[in-house]
Specification:
3 helices; single chain; 45% helix; alpha+beta; four-stranded mixed sheet
Length: 112
Amino acid sequence: MKRLLSLLVVLGLSGCISTPKTSSTLELYFSQEQLTLTSQQTQQLSQYFQSNSSRTVTADIAPASIENKFQALLRGKQRLSAVKQIANSHQVILLQNYNPTLQMDTLVLGSQ
């Protein structure tokens, strides 16, 4: 009986101590003509990279809302470049994905 009770207590404590990994995301929205990050976006990114324990983050970038598809892709790459600089300063590996299904002018960072 004592063994069973102590086993239940140990299992209960180990279940409370181990926490499941949660996915965290950060979404940034850009104005149509915006190429660089605002100070608020820079601050949000720094806080995200500091609070995130993962050293690898996925960045999904949507095209810019421009009629010319090439210019839309180029603008998205310029925005991503600014994010990559901040990620590098926090020693985070940024896996970049171009995602045309996202809402225009959006960047979504995620980690598992």
